Amino acid sequence: MKIPKRKLFLFIIFAYVLFSLYAAYNVFFSNKVISRVHRVTKKESPAGVARDSGAVAPLADAWNPWEDEEVEYNSALNKKREAFKKHLHRIDRNKPKRYKVQVWGKAAIGLYLWEHILEGPLNPTDKVAQWREGELQSGKVDFSFYTGPAVVQGHVPLDMNSLVVVLNGREQQKVSYSTRWLEHVQALVQSRTVSHVAVVLLGNEHCNNDWIGPYLKRNGGFVDLLFVVYDSPWVNDKDVFQWPLGVATYRQFPMIRPNAQLITSSRPYLCNFLGTVYKNSSRETLMQVLQQSGLEKECITSARENWLPQETADSLKRYQTALAQSELTLCPAGINTECYRIYEACSYGSVPVVEDVMTPGMCASGPSSPLRLLKTAGAPFIFITDWKELPAILEREKTMNQEQKMNRRRRLLEWYATFRQQMKERFTEVIEETFFKNI
């Protein structure tokens, strides 16, 4: 059936009007239920300001179909951030604290402390450089070290408040120099630039160190700790500790690293003694015993009448060669029983034969004196009280085979390495406990 165009046109107009009325009703009169997905966010106008019904809604009030998901995501992200912050805080709290300590080496034993005990590096490597410095970590402490003639008062970059000063108190001229350094450090303490002070002291060979007493904190001074060479009666392992004399770094004696050759090499001599022979001393007795026993040719000996403060390159080389080629090193007492030769012999695996006698002075006496520190550490030396015992010792040496000698050298080198490690740990622990126990 064919529908007239007029009726079709009227029908379309009627449908359009009907649809328009229906849409108007839904917009203005129906209570719409908006789904979660199609909900529109409505923000209230600021107080006292009426919203213009004819204005276009701002962008912030626009339709946001993912609003709930964003809220949940941001909430979860914030929780993760807070958890990560707490994690970093726990790591920082549990991380071992590190402390800084500066060491000023104003005596040659400072090099023994730094290079032989702490095993720290030094730059430049030139031993006669005017200024040398280095850094290392030991335990919880970061040490920095400065030494050389150019290290003078007021010109050391002090960037920490804990200080160790290495001084020489062996004779009056050295005491005067050391006193000036202590007065400088005292001024730093009074200005609150420095809070903690320790002194490593090459003490007097008679153990007469009264000059430094007033500077100790226990006597009203500012020095918290004193590490002193020789068997001082002050040693109490609380604020005064004994320190080893070590090798003669002032004569450029080097750090000798243990190696297989020191253990396995064939040594052509039974013993050695190169040194000063003082009149009416036990050293004269030693030389006489060697001559009278006919064993002088079995040992490397070189005696001089006057002490020389410095070695030449040739004399140092001859001395080191003697140590490396001898099974034993003879160590007669000088002004004090403890001498550099003991430690130098240990460096080469040559067993020290030590004259175990007390020398005049104020040093502590007791069952473990002299050489209290070394004996307590179980030093594998040969101790004698009279050099007349030496011929029998050398005859026994002749009966030892190479394997026995090698084992003894190995034990000595291992002991000396362990001793230095123990001194390093002890020094570090005492510094930590005294300087930083309340931090």
From TrEMBL:
Domain of life per record: Eukaryota
| Residues of the RXYLT1 N-terminal domain | 101-244
Give any Gene Ontology cellular component: Golgi apparatus
GO BP, sorted A to Z: protein O-linked glycosylation via mannose
* Annotated ranges, domain RXYLT1 C-terminal: 250-436
Among the GO molecular function terms of this UniProt record, one is: ribitol beta-1,4-xylosyltransferase activity
InterPro entries referenced in this protein's UniProt entry, alphabetically: RXYLT1-like (IPR055286), RXYLT1_C (IPR057538), RXYLT1_N (IPR057539)
* One Pfam short name: RXYLT1_N
The molecule here is called Ribitol xylosyltransferase 1
Natural source organism: Cynoglossus semilaevis
